[in-house]
Design goal:
Blueprint (H helix, E strand, L loop, with lengths): L1 H22 L4 H8 L3 E6 L3 E6 L12 E6 L2 E6 L12 E5 L3 E5 L9 E6 L2 E6 L10 E3 L14 E4 L9 E3 L4 H6 L2 E2 L3 E4 L2 E4 L4 H8 L5 E7 L6 E3 L2 E5 L11 H12 L55 E3 L13
Parallel strand pairs: 3-15, 15-17
Antiparallel strand pairs: 1-2, 3-4, 5-6, 7-8, 7-12, 8-10, 9-13, 11-18, 13-14, 16-17
């Protein structure tokens, strides 16, 4: 009888260990099942199966509903969506001619997969395309890789506002002029302990903003949900540890291609007229992590953000498309 109990205990231990290991894997199946309630999976001609969210505006862009914080891994994106743990820390985004912005799965965690521009009083970022991959023990900078994406992929804010909780984005029409005054500062450092974004120094941002940028620690959460800052800790869900378990992400991509084949995936077409209430745009005033401020005055600082003449300043808009004078949308 004692042997039976010992055998049963050993079996349960092995089962628990095996379940724990499975819970620490990042795979296409994990992404597919987790993101299906919040969007639809589509087959793109260039990158295969990808995902796009429900209930976002027609002019929506990745990395616009949320904000940046400084962590041990560099500038880290804090998403305002409950599904943000995947598309903003794994994989890349592409602007598809048919589907709009589509996310292609990736299998290594990063504080954010974006490229940066800095200078002339502005800071800008744009999602990296799916063709960008990495190898451990490599540093990738603007001189080593072509990060070129279209002008429509960029957003810009005033340089001193990058550490704020909300952003007023530069008007789309002004982006070409603003970009000409900036330089590419994208820089990734890939190590066995994680992926680091080191191209935009915190000290430079502090000098321009004239205030200290607090360091926040990344804490891997075991529960799926909206990312949150508690004290000096950023709680982010990840199904696996954020340290890379492989030397090259392309190894995993090749392995997962068999699960990503459209003929093996049942993608149910969305019914016409089907309400998309499950992924309506979150209301910032209902976000417990966002400061409650007077409407239309997000991030405004007396004497600094009010232009003397409107024609001398690029029109700026917030993440919902409203400019700082209370009218208009992105075009």
């Amino acid at each position: 009888m004692r042997k039976i109990f010992l055998a049963a205990g050993l079996a349960l231990t092995l089962f628990a260990a095996d379940g724990s290991l499975k819970a620490q894997e990042v795979s296409f199946r994990v992404f597919y099942s987790s993101l299906a309630p919040y969007g639809e999976w589509v087959n793109t001609p260039d990158y295969g199966m990808g995902w796009r969210p429900y209930g976002v505006p027609a002019d929506w862009m990745p990395y616009t509903f949320g904000h940046w914080v400084w962590t041990d891994y560099g500038w880290t994106w804090v998403s305002g969506y409950p599904w943000g743990w995947a598309p903003f820390h794994y994989g890349r985004w592409t602007l598809d001619a048919r589907y709009g912005w589509v996310w292609t799965p990736g299998y290594v965690w990063a504080p954010a997969w974006v490229q940066w521009r800095w200078g002339g009083g502005y800071c800008g970022w744009a999602p990296l395309p799916p063709g960008f991959h990495f190898r451990v023990d490599v540093v990738v900078g603007p001189d080593d890789y072509n990060f070129g994406v279209g002008m429509r992929s960029w957003v810009f804010v005033r340089a001193g506002e990058i550490g704020d909780a909300r952003y007023r984005f530069v008007d789309r029409d002004a982006i070409p002029r603003v970009m000409n005054g900036t330089r590419n500062v994208t820089r990734f450092r890939f190590t066995a302990s994680g992926v680091y974004q080191t191209g935009l120094p915190r000290e430079e941002v502090e000098r321009v903003a004239r205030r200290r940028i607090q360091t926040v620690s990344v804490v891997r959460s075991a529960s799926v949900g909206r990312e949150s800052i508690v004290g000096r800790s950023l709680h982010i869900y990840s199904p696996a540890p954020i340290e890379p378990r492989i030397r090259s992400e392309q190894e995993v991509i090749r392995r997962e291609r068999s699960y990503q084949a459209p003929e093996r995936i049942r993608v149910e077409p969305r019914e016409e007229g089907r309400p998309r209430q499950e992924m309506s745009q979150p209301n910032p005033r209902q976000d417990n992590n966002a400061p409650r401020v007077e409407r239309g005055r997000e991030n405004a600082r007396p004497g600094r953000d009010v232009p003397r003449k409107e024609k001398d300043q690029p029109r700026e808009r917030d993440k919902h498309g409203n400019d700082n004078r209370g009218h208009g949308r992105w075009h």
